[in-house]
Write the structure tokens for this entry.
Amino acid sequence: MTDVEACYRGLIDKGLDRIAVTGDSAGGNLALVLLSIARSQASNGGVAPVGAVAISPVTDLALTGESYETRAEADPYFTRSQAAGLVASYLGEADPMNPLASPLYGDLRGLPPIRVHVGDDEVLLDDSRRYVERAVAAASTPSWTYGWECRTGSSPAYASSTLLRQAISAIGAFLARRLL
């Protein structure tokens, strides 16, 4: 996470003040953790991101989402055992519910608009659903947080070409609104 923060600070040091963060899977985790960290730093005079896009983000390294079971047969790419192995390698003995590891457990108040893409057949579905629910509940203006679920295909990357084009277009429009 320190490398991600350093990159963000590097952009600010170069004079950029309209920054959106994005990430896919574990990168979505890092983007959402950075969002909370940067928002906290902005309250002390730092620069807050203007938005975020997370595609199939891993938001709960405690792996408590029901979709690890309910979507296990449907998800062609990811399994709970794979996730558990990756989490163990990443965290070691650290607490998986630490907000610096699992954005689901962080303070989500005051975040900028967020767009989340996830497939209905993914084991990560509940990670996205629960994060978006918490972010909306914590937002002073619920319309500032956006959730979108791709109903077919495991993620925009595995969706039909029509759904993929729609997802990329929606992400581009969202980021353009935030950055311009």
